[in-house]
Amino acid sequence: MSDTRRRVKVYTLNEDRQWDDRGTGHVSSTYVEELKGMSLLVRAESDGSLLLESKINPNTAYQKQQDTLIVWSEAENYDLALSFQEKAGCDEIWEKICQVQGKDPSVEVTQDLIDESEEERFEEMPETSHLIDLPTCELNKLEEIADLVTSVLSSPIRREKLALALENEGYIKKLLQLFQACENLENTEGLHHLYEIIRGILFLNKATLFEVMFSDECIMDVVGCLEYDPSLAQPKRHREFLTKTAKFKEVIPITDSELRQKIHQTYRVQYIQDIILPTPSVFEENFLSTLTSFIFFNKVEIVSMLQVSKLRCSS
């Protein structure tokens, strides 16, 4: 089959929270009699064998990430992902999933991700019956914002609500503007609060927030916030390392600006995970699972883009 739009890699998440490659093939959506419903089928490009047969469940939460990725949980502790070679193919299958679930394809998550038992436990509490109200994004509110972000981490439902509020209000960019102001004013207390806030937002484990935080516009300010760990006598100099010490060496010439940007982004996000963030506790490990996936699938996309670039050069 020559349709590259539908070309995908199938991944499953193993017990160590690492993604295993289950093979490359072509995806289609079709009605499967045995499953009694519209299903996603992936047939291996090597021999046509069935790599995936998954019914599109009306109640399953599907997530669309990074333009070319669809992720969902088939059962408890069994996560699946389709990584598309092309955005157009991802959009096509995403529309099919949304059609089955009666959702608008503009959404990035088709269902509420909150655990049902957690939802039942909290739904009677008035403070969780609506979106979290964020304090105004001002210097004198940074301590209040830090306390709010820290307080929600133990509750899945409140993490979801805070993430949604941050996303809806474009709050992260406002916070990073305050970071620049705090640095200019040498406001150490404010910088310490911003460290706690940005670290807490990373632990919300939301791909939609990562897309903002790790954009070209924002990522160096995010790194800057994470330099001001209150437990350290002096701030770290991570930005200096990333901009002056670390050198990008091209083994092969890279002329595609999007590919180059993706490589730089992946290196910086990997640096945040491996060098800047402290080793997570058992309690915190699951908070970074989406960050790990973000890095992994960025690398998958880089390899795919390199292959496309090589094909173009040879043709």
Question: What can you tell me about this protein's structure?
Answer:
Residues 144-309 form the Serine/threonine-protein phosphatase 4 regulatory subunit 3-like central domain. This is Protein phosphatase 4 regulatory subunit 3B. GO terms for molecular function: protein phosphatase activator activity. The structure is a single chain. The protein folds into two domains: 7-101, PH-domain like (Roll), CATH 2.30.29; 141-314, no CATH class. Helix content is 47%, strand content 17%. It has helices spanning 87-101, 116-122, 142-152, 156-168, 171-185, 188-202, 207-213, 219-225, 238-245, 257-276, 282-285, 289-314; strands spanning 7-13, 19-32, 37-44, 50-55, 63-65, 69-75, 78-84. Helix 3 (142-152) runs parallel beside helix 6, helix 5 (171-185) runs antiparallel to helix 6 (188-202) and helix 10 (257-276) packs antiparallel against helix 12. The protein is globular, with a radius of gyration of 21 Å. Mean pLDDT is 85; it is low at 114-129.
Uncertain ranges: 114-129
Secondary-structure element pattern, one letter each: EEEEEEEHHHHHHHHHHHH
Within the largest sheet, what's the order of strands? 4-3-2-1-7-6-5
Inertia-based shape = globular
Distance between the termini: 20 Å
Major sheet = 7 strands, antiparallel
Helix content bin: 40-55%
* Number of continuous helical runs: 12
Strand content: 15-25%
* Tally of structural domains: 2
Rg value:
21 Å
The overall pLDDT average reads 85
How many strand segments? Answer: 7
Label the structural class. Answer: alpha+beta
Domain PP4R3 EVH1-like: 5-102
InterPro entries: EVH1_PP4R3, P4R3-like_central_dom, PH-like_dom_sf, PP4R3-like
Domain Serine/threonine-protein phosphatase 4 regulatory subunit 3-like central: 144-309
GO molecular function: protein phosphatase activator activity
